[in-house]
Structures are given as structure tokens and as C-alpha cells.
Design goal:
alpha/beta, seven-stranded mixed beta sheet, seven-stranded antiparallel beta sheet, 25% strand, phosphoprotein, Phosphoglucomutase-like protein 5
Length: 567
């Protein structure tokens, strides 16, 4: 600390009406809004900080991290200046502002912080023309529950001023402690810059048998892997954990330098955007491939020759093989959780293991209550997210290490493991169609009309004939969730059509960017007979898709000829 105390200023402002968090305490918008609209970021940060009770906020510790996208450094500086002015006592920040979402959750739980602020727009593009986001995680390390998000929104609608220390400057590149004397504050404000990987890596060491994984990656029958960080936050984690710690050759890891625009690519680990990895895997040289999204909570698994493991299959395979992980051998398995749109492959594993499955709305925050209450050990979503009760976030690198542990224990390839799983439990054919960038008003009317149609009593029993297939409607509903822990009810979480053969169609509205909307269409069909396990999912599901398009009229009402993304 040098010189005179840093002044704390109160700056007048006016509210914005569009700062409702979209779930989990997150606000995701085009970067130009955050960068160009006066006080847009300070307003939201103040709303987040004010949502913490004053007695809990004064002198507390919080964690701050980002996925390194454009505007992150400027935003981090503003967060630090406002945290200091609002009475936060200490901030833990990753070096250069970098911390993966799982690492933020890990550190919050490790040091018992009051919460964390993550600067990320997840898998959305970066750069000046991309998207930016702010996400608030609470003291359990998980995304803010709806009651907190609602509180943040209410504050944002009436905000008149925010507090900031504009003269406070920190060096994000220098590891260690930095202290600042503030006006009218009895104690100095402290910032600690930490290695972004170390604390998280120490947690992983307690979960996995690193020697077994290292033998797999370095032994005489070495498994050649290819891991794509997609120029997001995961580069330093991939290099330090997989290469330095577990012995994978340095050239196993690609796109490991975090870039503000993610190299001009879409940092979304799926078959549409992770094409560099997919092409490398198709060549047959590598036996295992993985990709991560921008902030490191989502992942994709590929086997040799580009064999794709769907997120729902990955979740089910992990569930069936948890005994390969020392952590679960020690503490056991209490239950599983999946989001409603995720395929029911997990349910079949749970039934064989005699553990419960909790079906929740989309959004990781719904799993936190289940894990905090000891009901749930493993959770997952069809949107490439899986995690366990070691954190309160989905965790991409954890999932990759689980897969490597399974391969090491079973001494089989990715494809062999998945095919054995299908042979034992049957195969759930599954796909998701995303209609992105739609006008929100149009999507509202499409979903409103569709709900009126499918929830009408006369819809039950209707039959749809497509080619040689006849589907009879057995059940429909607008999904709602009653939290078994606190009784909270969450309504209108998607429309479900369940047919007599247990096939499912699901329609769900998503508006994570808040500017444009997305309608997601999900189709699922179960095949028990192993002779039917080698078909293309879209071919199997085409009759269901045809029914969905017919009853929704989505192409006619949006002017689209097809979905933006198919997964």
C-alpha cells in the first residue's frame, strides 16, 4: 500500500429493464451492450453485490474468474473496483483473470467464500461482435438459485447508484497478494492472484487414480489422445493436468492458448463446431478425443475413427462405471440427476443399480439442492454437461478423466465401452434440433399454440402414421418440477409428448442471450434389440421429427427450412 487512501465514489445511474438473469444468476448479452451502453456492466455488478445481505458482504471473500474472452480484462477491473467499494474484504482471482467455471466452484467451496463472479458467455462466440456474460455463483459453489436471480433482477430495476473505486488498479499477471487502503475503510482491501489450475488440480488428485491414468497415457500400450481446448479457458488446465501431470505428449493438446475471440471460432464442443478435432479423430491415429467449451464446463468425447459419444450416452456410461473411480468406491452412489430433455438412458442404469433418478428442468442450479441434501452423486444434461457432487458445477475435465479412468480399468476402446453398454441396457436414439436466433415474440406464440394443442385432452390417444410407423400418444404435459428438498415449484419447463412405445418428443424455449430466442426440439426412441444398434440416429428418429414438424409448424411460422444446429 502506497500513498493516500483510494477514494470510494458513489455514481448516479439509471436502471435497464433487460437485466433479468436467465437462470443461475447469469446475464448474457451481445458484447456491444456491455461495452457501449452507459453503466450497463456496473449496474448489473452492483445488483449482484447488493443481493448479498450487507452483514454477509462486509469483509467477506469472493472469487472472480473469466474465460478470457474479449472485454474480460476491462470487466474484471470494474468488478474489482466495485467489490472494494461495496465492502468485500478479499478477492481471489486467477492469474491474468483466467479461471474455469469448475475451478471457480472448487475455490469457493475450498475457502468457504461468499460466492463468485464468472465473466463468461459459455459456449457463445467472443470478440467485439460476439457475446459477453456475467454469472453469479453462491456460497455452495453452484449457480445462483432462482430466488437469488429474482432478487438481482428486482434490484436492477430500481437501481439509482453504484459504488466504485475508479482509481484502484491491480496487476492480474503477478501471483501473490496485493493490498489497498481505501477511504473510510478500517481494513485494507486485499486481492490474491492465484495459479488458475493448482487448487482445482489438488481436488482432482483426491478423486482419481492418477497413476492408472498416467500408465494409460505413457505405458507400452499408450493410448494416443487428442484434446481441443478451442482457444478457451481450458488450455492451461489441459496442459498442466493431462500433459505435465499425467504424461500425455505436449502435441496431444491443441488450441490451448486462450484467445479473446477464440480464434474466430465458436467455442462449442459438438460435431458442428469442433470440426478440427473430428477430422483428426477420423484419421484413426488417436484412440481418444475430447473438446471443451469456452469456460470449461462442457465437453465432447470422441473415439477412434471419429466415433461420437452423445452426451446422454456419456452420462449413462459414466453412471454404470463409477466403480472405476476411487472417489465413488469410497463414498458410494446415492442417486442420479438429469435434466428433463436428457435421454432416459441414465434411468436404465439407475434401475439396475437400485438408486433414484431426479428429473429436473434444464439448468445446473436445480442439481445443487439435490447434491447439498445428499440425494445425488452424479448429474448431467444433454447439452454436453456432466458433473458430480465434488463440485456444484458441471465439469468438463472431470468428465474426461472419468472416461480415461474407465478405459484404463476396462482395457477397452471408447467404441467398445459404448457398444457393451448398449448391449446390456439397450440404445436410446436421440437428437436435438436447435432453431436459433428467432424473434422472441414469434417463439412465444409458437409455444403457446403448441401447448394448447398437446395439452388438450383430445390429443391423448391420437395416432400419427409416418411410413410404416404408427405412433400413439400416451401422455403429454407442460413439465413442472417440485424440488424434493424445499418444495419450490418451477413451471413451464418444456412440452412433452410421450408415445405408447416410450418414444418422446420435447419442445423447449431457450432465451439465454436475452435478445434472440431459440426453440429446441428433442426426439428420443429406444431400441432393445442389439441388431438395431448400428443405425444412424436421424434415420431412426425421422418419423418422430416429421410428427414434431407437422404439429408445431415451426418451419412455416419461422420461415426456416431447417434447424441451425443438430446434435
Amino acid at each position: 500500500m502506497e500513498g493516500s487512501p483510494i477514494p470510494v465514489l458513489t455514481v448516479p445511474t439509471a436502471p435497464y429493464e433487460d437485466q433479468r438473469p436467465t437462470g443461475g444468476g447469469g446475464l448474457r448479452r451481445p458484447t456491444v451492450l456491455f461495452e457501449g451502453q452507459r453503466n450497463y456492466l456496473p449496474n448489473f455488478i452492483q445488483s449482484v453485490l447488493s443481493s448479498i445481505d450487507l452483514r454477509d458482504r462486509q469483509g467477506c471473500t469472493m472469487v472472480v474468474g473469466s474465460d478470457g474472452r474479449y472485454f474480460s480484462r476491462t470487466a474484471t477491473e470494474i468488478v474489482v473496483q466495485m467489490a472494494a467499494a461495496n465492502g468485500i474484504g478479499r478477492l481471489i482471482i486467477g492469474q491474468n483473470g483466467i479461471l474455469s467455471t469448475p475451478a471457480v466452484s472448487c475455490i469457493i467451496r475450498k475457502i468457504k467464500a461468499a460466492g463468485g463472479i464468472i465473466l463468461t458467455a459459455s459456449h457463445c462466440p467472443g470478440g467485439p461482435g460476439g457475446e459477453f456474460g456475467v454469472k453469479f455463483n453462491v456460497a455452495n459453489g453452484g449457480p445462483a438459485p432462482d430466488v437469488v436471480s429474482d432478487k438481482i433482477y428486482q434490484i436492477s430495476k430500481t437501481i439509482e447508484e453504484y459504488a466504485i473505486c475508479p482509481d484502484l488498479r491491480i496487476d492480474l499477471s503477478r501471483l501473490g497478494r496485493q493490498e489497498f487502503d481505501l477511504e473510510n475503510k478500517f481494513k485494507p482491501f486485499r486481492v490474491e492472484i492465484v495459479d488458475p489450475v493448482d487448487i482445482y488440480l489438488n481436488l482432482l488428485r483426491t478423486i482419481f487414480d492418477f497413476n492408472a491414468i498416467k500408465s494409460l497415457l505413457t505405458g507400452p500400450s499408450q493410448l494416443k489422445i487428442r484434446v481441443d481446448a478451442m482457444h478457451g479457458v481450458m488450455g492451461p488446465y489441459v496442459r498442466k493436468v493431462l500433459c505435465d501431470e499425467l504424461g500425455a505428449p505436449a502435441n496431444s493438446a491443441i488450441n490451448c492458448v486462450p484467445l479473446e475471440d477464440f480464434g474466430g471460432q465458436h467455442p462449442d464442443p459438438n460435431l458442428t463446431y469442433a470440426t478440427t478435432l473430428l477430422e483428426a479423430m477420423k484419421g484413426g491415429e488417436y484412440g481418444f478425443g475430447a473438446a471443451f467449451d469456452a469456460d470449461g464446463d462442457r465437453y465432447m468425447i470422441l473415439g477412434q475413427n471419429g466415433f461420437f459419444v452423445s452426451p446422454s450416452d456419456s452420462l449413462a456410461v459414466i453412471a454404470a462405471n463409477l466403480s472405476c473411480i476411487p472417489y465413488f468406491r469410497q463414498i458410494g452412489v446415492r442417486g442420479f440427476g438429469r435434466s428433463m430433455p436428457t435421454s432416459m438412458a441414465l434411468d436404465r442404469v439407475a434401475k439396475s443399480m437400485k438408486v433414484p433418478v431426479y428429473e429436473t428442468p434444464a439448468g445446473w442450479r436445480f442439481f445443487s439442492n439435490l447434491m447439498d441434501s445428499g440425494r445425488c452423486s452424479l448429474c448431467g444434461e444433454e447439452s454436453f454437461g456432466t458433473g458430480s457432487d465434488h463440485l456444484r458445477e458441471k465439469d468438463g475435465l472431470w468428465a474426461v478423466l472419468v472416461w480415461l479412468s474407465i478405459i484404463a480399468a476396462r482395457k477397452q476402446s471408447v467404441e467398445e465401452i459404448v457398444r457393451d453398454h448398449w448391449a446390456k441396457y439397450g440404445r436410446h436414439y436421440y437428437c436435438r434440433f436447435d432453431y436459433e436466433g428467432l424473434e422472441p415474440k414469434a417463439t412465444y406464440y409458437i409455444m403457446r399454440d403448441l401447448e394448447a394443442l398437446v395439452t388438450d385432452k383430445s390429443f391423448i390417444g391420437q395416432q400419427f402414421a409416418v411410413g410404416s410407423h404408427i405412433y400413439s400418444v400416451a401422455k403429454t404435459d407442460s413439465f413442472e418440477y417440485v424440488d424434493p428438498v424445499d418444495g419450490t415449484v418451477t413451471k413451464k419447463q418444456g412440452l412433452r409428448i410421450i408415445f405408447s412405445d416410450a418414444s418422446r418428443l420435447i419442445f423447449r424455449l431457450s432465451s439465454s442471450s436475452g435478445v434472440r430466442a431459440t426453440i429446441r426440439l428433442y426426439a428420443e426412441s429406444y431400441e432393445r434389440d442389439p441388431s438395431g444398434h448400428d443405425q444412424e440416429p436421424q434415420a431412426v428418429l425421422s418419423p418422430l421429427i416429421a410428427i414434431a414438424l407437422k404439429i408445431s409448424q415451426i418451419h412455416e411460422r419461422t420461415g426456416r427450412r431447417g434447424p441451425t444446429v443438430i446434435t
